[in-house]
Structure formats: structure tokens, C-alpha cells
Write a structure and sequence with these properties.
The protein has helices spanning 7-16, 23-44, 75-80; strands spanning 85-86, 89-90. With 97 residues, it is mainly alpha-helical.
């Protein structure tokens, strides 16, 4: 089932694409689109009965795993290195008065 591109279709596509085409450009676009559609029609002739449908060329699937916490709360170990601490926080000299 071949669709032919006519002047009305070219005008519509031009409006959608916000193009202003000269008459020569419209004819060239019409020829190009008709050639593309005839190529697509050729693909319909291929025998794909033995071909499995696919969504991707590579066998890809989602891999789900449980989230595991690997880095726990190490605030105690970090505070051991502090020269001064107060209420489980670093104690630093005041910089603003």
C-alpha cells in the first residue's frame, strides 16, 4: 500500500517544520519523500516469517538487585582524628564575630 506525496502533504509538512519552500524545493522534497516511501514499501516485501520480533539488537535485560548498605556510619572513627570535638561534632575556632 503505497502512499503518494502530493502538494497538499508537502504544504502540511512545511507548516509543521516551519519551512518556506520555493516551488523548485517543493518539487524536490516531493520527489525525495516519494522515493523514501517506495523504499519502505520494498521492505514490506521481505519474508520475515522466520525472524523473531525484537526491540534491541543485543540481548539486553534489566538486572535487579537488592540495595545493600556497604558503607555504614563511620562518624565515630572520623571524630577520633579530630583535635577537638563537642556533642559528636568537630569543634573549630570561631571565625566570625
Amino acid at each position: 500500500m503505497s502512499v503518494k506525496i502530493d502538494d497538499e502533504m508537502i504544504d502540511y509538512v512545511g507548516i509543521l517544520a516551519k519551512l518556506s519552500l520555493t516551488p523548485e524545493e517543493r518539487e524536490k522534497a516531493k520527489e525525495d519523500m516519494n522515493r523514501m516511501l517506495s523504499y519502505i514499501d520494498m521492505l514490506d516485501e521481505l519474508d520475515t516469517t522466520q525472524t523473531e520480533p525484537m526491540t534491541h539488537i543485543f540481548p539486553v535485560s534489566n538486572i535487579f538487585r537488592e540495595d545493600e548498605i556497604t558503607n555504614g556510619d563511620s562518624s565515630e572513627a572520623m571524630l577520633e582524628n579530630a583535635p577537638s570535638q563537642k556533642e559528636k561534632q568537630y569543634k573549630v575556632p570561631r571565625t566570625v564575630e
